[in-house]
Amino acid sequence: MCSGAENSAGFQRVTLLGLGVMGSSLGMALKRLPSPPFVTGYSRSPATRETAAGLAVADRIDDDPAAAVSDAELVVGCLPVLTLAPFFRKLKPALPRNVALTDVGSTKQWLDLEIRAMLQGSQAVYVGSHPMTGTEKSGPNAARADLYRDAPVFLTPSKTDDAVIVARLRQFWQSVGARVHCVTPADHDRRVARTSHVPHLMAAALVAAAFRDDQPDMKPFVGPGFRDTTRVAGGSPEMWHDIVCTNREALLLELNALQEMIKDIRRCIDEHEFDDVRDFLEQARHRREQEIVSS
After folding, report:
1. pLDDT, tens only, 189-234
2. CATH 1.10.3660.10 residue ranges for the chain
């Protein structure tokens, strides 16, 4: 689904709807290209617009989203997942003919259904994107021009999407250093539920469990391992609320699988089967080395 006109021309006019970490970092990366596109940014927040302007993340920053998209070839939605579809719906009358729409949302199936349905009768084209990168910090001040470098970006085209548009989106993400993969929206959501969404919920649960009874003097017992394991729990609750809402089914499947593993570990400990615990830990160490560290 991602093959096609690999040498197609890049987008010359790009609009970023949302100038938080993801949008501002993308603007910074685009403006550092040898032949950068004209970048327009939009944020409803005056403070965000002022900060983004000071960081030179765009050539123009608008307070009116309709004006921001009026001459775009590519519009990138850098807003929370539940906000994107209603926002695009509101902007539909202002979208130029044949404009390409994408986003940086962490779930894809819900967005794909909502936005494609909304665009019926329009000549605008939507193909979802998900850059697997970011930070627990928020706002344009946390943006980095290299945020997308070597990051996996998942495109979720349908079989009927124009191959040229898909190839241009592939080139767009590659231009900022990303490694592009094409998957279906459903497959994307199942896999990121395992590797991203469940780990975030578990990090939050570990924090809640460690400090569940307000026992004093816990801070000296918080070492680097706990900090590393729970770092992602510092992410935006609003963003993760939207992720959980829009990836509910895949999350429930993966949480059930994890719960069964935890129950099995608990049983081994309860029944003094410590050799099995050691084997479990060794298998996990080996798989981590094989699948994560070595890659």
Report:
1. 999 999 999 999 999 999 999 999 888 889 999 999 999 999 999 9
2. 188-293
Instruction: Assess whether pLDDT exceeds 60 at residue 280.
Output: yes
5 CB neighbour count, 10 Å cutoff:
15
Measured CA to CA, the distance from residue 145 to residue 148 in angstroms comes to 8
Instruction: Find the largest Cα–Cα distance for the chain.
Output: 68
pLDDT band, residue 135 (cuts 50/70/90): confident
pLDDT reported for residue 295: 66
pTM of the model: 0.90
**What size, in residues, is the chain?**
295
Return all residues near 53 (Cβ < 8 A) that are at least 6 apart. 61
At residue 18, φ and ψ (nearest 5 deg) are: 110, 125
Residue 157 CA to residue 155 CA, distance in Å, equals: 6
Residue 149 reports pLDDT greater than 70: yes
The helix (run of H) or strand (run of E) holding residue 41 is: strand 38-42
CATH 1.10.3660.10 is right for the domain spanning 188-293? yes
CATH 3.40.50.720 in the chain, residues? 13-184
CATH 3.90.1170.50 fits domain 13-184: no
CB 129 within 8 A of CB 173: yes
pLDDT per position as a tens digit, 86-115:
999 999 999 999 999 999 999 999 999 999
Which residues have CB under 8 Å from 293's CB, separation 6+? none
Pull the structure tokens for residue 123.
């000549």
Q: Which two tokens stand for residue 92?
A: 């539909």
Distance of CA 258 to the CA centre of its chain: 23
